[in-house]
Amino acid sequence: MKRVFLFVLDSCGAGEMPDAAKFGDFGVHTLKSCATSSKLNIPTMREYGIGNIDGLDFLGAVDAPKGAYGKLQESSMGKDTTIGHWEIAGIVSPDPLPTYPNGFPEEVLKPFREATGRGVLANAPWSGTAVINEYGDEHVRTGDLIVYTSADSVFQIAAHEDVVPPEQLYEYCRIARKILQGKHGVGRVIARPFIGTSGNYTRTSNRHDFSLEPPKETMLDAVKAAGLDSIAVGKIFDIFAGRGTTEHVYTKGNTDGMNKTMEYADKDFHGLCFINLVDFDMLYGHRRNIDGYAEALTEFDGWLAKFMEKMGDDDLVMITADHGCDPAYTATTDHTREYVPLLVLGKGVKPVNLGTRTCFGNIAATICDLLGVKLETEGKSFASEIL
Question: What is the set of domains in the chain, with CATH numbers?
């Protein structure tokens, strides 16, 4: 293959994994919840076999799928963005990244306050929209930073753009990233700028993630080292701490991400284009918006039909997810421990049922195999089965 486009539909889970209860998740299924919405219309993905995946027949199986299809079980001990993407790229994480259900300890906050010269508000797990409404007024009045976390391994800093300009907030995040290493090495430090007035604060699109650097070589590292193009679209660059990419572009939501990916479809490159579409998770999964999630899937599906028209004989497309975030699950607003779907599309792809496979890293092994790149990973390539 000359070009591989890998799409991560962020949080688009395919049903609870056998160990979901250990993660506090019971009866979760992101795609099944979306299927309850009248807004869901995905004929393109159905044509390629999404409804033929084990356990997803409610999406509508077809007699002769045009793509290869299956689902993957996560081997890593996590259900977050960082660990999910790392595993997709070939790294299995046997130990979960640290989380802080009781807030961050003083050994983290003291050096952070000293380095930034600002106080800290909140310091507990919070919904991102709720925390700015609870502490926004005090932040605007004092200049203290709103620091909070979630069930994920994250250190989030919210600040009003008129009080702390985004570039200054990013610098505070870099300070936190240097502090949060070793036993406190959270997956991501996240800048969460917001605007507005009392009672009407809203987050902006100037979010920025500062990730922990991957502990081993990833698929991106291998592709870049081989002298091929390794293109990151959306938050991929941040998730991998900027490592292993030859080119990157940030996006402001799904529509912008799809537009930028369409531009890459018109370019002559050799290698990997790795795309994250974040709105599924950020705008609809965490906010438990079933119709919004379904509409976002419908938008992607319509766009995908046009995108596939640009694919040549030596192009391949993979569509998957990094974890679940069931929009109908009301026990929490956190991610959910789920299988992820896998569709493989392209003119040279054999329509085959790949079944249910352990390890998201099968994707990395397969892509490296297709591009003729060497990578040591626990994932197993299925390249020979789909060509």
Answer: 3-93+212-386 (3.40.720.10), 106-210 (3.30.70.1250)
